[in-house]
Amino acid sequence: MRKILKETEGITLIALVLTIIILLILAGVTIATLTGDNRNIKSSTEC
Asked: Tens of pLDDT along 1-47?
């Protein structure tokens, strides 16, 4: 029974870390877009 609990806690910790990383990436992209520093979006809208 204890082995099952330890494996579940490990999977939960990995899921938490991955979620935080994804949220940080999305926040960085959003901030870059709002500040206008994203050159890829500017070049694609010019065409």
From this structure: 556 655 556 678 888 999 999 999 999 988 888 887 656 666 666 65
DSSP the chain: -HHHHHHHHHHHHHHHHHHHHHHHHHHHHHHHHHHT--HHHHHHHH-
pTM of the model: 0.57
Angle ∠(10,2,4) on CA atoms, nearest 5: 50
Question: Tokens at residue 27, please?
Answer: 């926040």
